[in-house]
Amino acid sequence: MDIIFEQAYLFLLFCFILSFFLIFTITRSRSSLKVAPSPPGPPRLPIIGNIHLVGKNPHHSFADLSKTYGPIMSLKFGSLNTVVVSSPEAAREVLRTYDQILSNRSSTNSIRFINHHEVSVVWLPPSSPRWRLLRKLAATQLFSPQRLEATKTLRENKVKELVSFISESSEREEAVDISRATFITALNIISNILFSVDLGSYDSKKFSEFQDTVIGVMESVGKPDAANFFPFLGFLDLQGNRKTLKACSERLFKVFRGFIDAKIAEKSLRNVNPKDVSKRDFVDVLLDLTEGDEAELNTNDIEHLLFDLFGAGTDTNSSTVEWAMAELLRNPEKMGKAQAEIDSVIGQKGVVKESDISELPYLQAVVKETFRLHPAAPLLVPRKAEFDVEVLGFLVPKDAQVLVNVWAIGRDPSVWENPSRFEPERFMGKEIDVRGRDYELTPFGAGRRICPGLPLAVKTVPLMLASLLYSFDWKLPNGVLSEDLDMEESFGLTLHKTNPLHAVPVKKRCLN
Fold first, then answer.
1. Most buried among 114, 125, 454, 471, by the most CB within 10 A?
2. Where are the domains of the chain?
3. What's the pTM value of the predicted model, to 2 decimals?
4. For 387-437, what is each residue's pLDDT tens digit?
């Protein structure tokens, strides 16, 4: 009997020790999971969360809030958890360190309405084979060094046409709509690369409608939408974003479809040697992938890819040139400095070539300073956390929307001296670049989600800007003073001047 009691005692003691060990282990495990707190953020109202704190320019609102709550901040918009980062260190964590976990997209209600998220290189997850195919096509057939070199003469000729158009306005002493003129140039560059035709005309007002359509796309995708925060409200389309995007996308798809059908008909009538690259454009390459039993694409895929490329390749480039010209007109001494450099390098050659840009460090600094103050996508494109992840000691929960406020980073006084001033000199003699390696200046993003059109943009923007400054002096119309120039912004997926810039060109020299 004593032996039985002794065994029972030992068994109970063992159970007690085991229970204590398990409780200790579980408690310690749970406490370790709670090491990373949620990022700080403002108090939330019931149901709406922090929606009331965001104005018509969310990048401004987030920048103001980050002054109180720090460079990584948690906000709640209805049912949507959002984390906003606004420092180079936090941006590096999101765009490089945890790029793989944070590379999914948080698509908008309007994008889902036209099913663009299912086929778009912008919105597909990087794990998708379709995304990898589309990125590979863009990288090898559009933006590779070889393809950019092959289309260099095309870009230079289209910029010559821009200068010729402005020269005619100069002779009539008419103000030029910089936004419209540079948009048509960017449009014709990208349409020739894609279709081998001009889509824009400087002499026709109907192409202003094309520009309005592209801008309408960017605004309807980027503007705050109640349906993104309360999905059950999607069918109401309270802000009209679904209606706007549907109408704009249908107009663009109709244009794309016309060119695709024409190319298919042409292809059936004559046999073009597929190895003759000089006669083939990007759509020809895409159409090859629609053939055969194991076709990798269909015409719907091509239309949606063109939809992405037109938005990224036209609106962003032209708006950057417009912002640069606006800043230079507000700062005449900076414009004079840029023009003096261009004149010393180009001399009497009569035309700026792409090969000249590398010899114009101050002009390149002007472009970088414009990207700093007026990034085309002020919050980049929204990302989405695939899993819980710790960023700078704070928990970013699974499925949270992650926004990188590059606009705020570009104006952070702890990063930039005199951040609100337009001072291209800050980049002279420094290696800061816009290609996704320097996180204080990432207007194109970084990592696997970096804008695929970056190589084209960094050639097109400085070429257009240098040509405008080389061939003309500029003044504001109707006696407007430089300090009174309106610089109000309109927020969307891309950032525009609310009121387009009009300036009067004064011809400096005979143009070839």
1. 471
2. 23-507
3. 0.89
4. 999 999 999 999 999 999 999 999 999 999 999 999 999 999 999 999 999
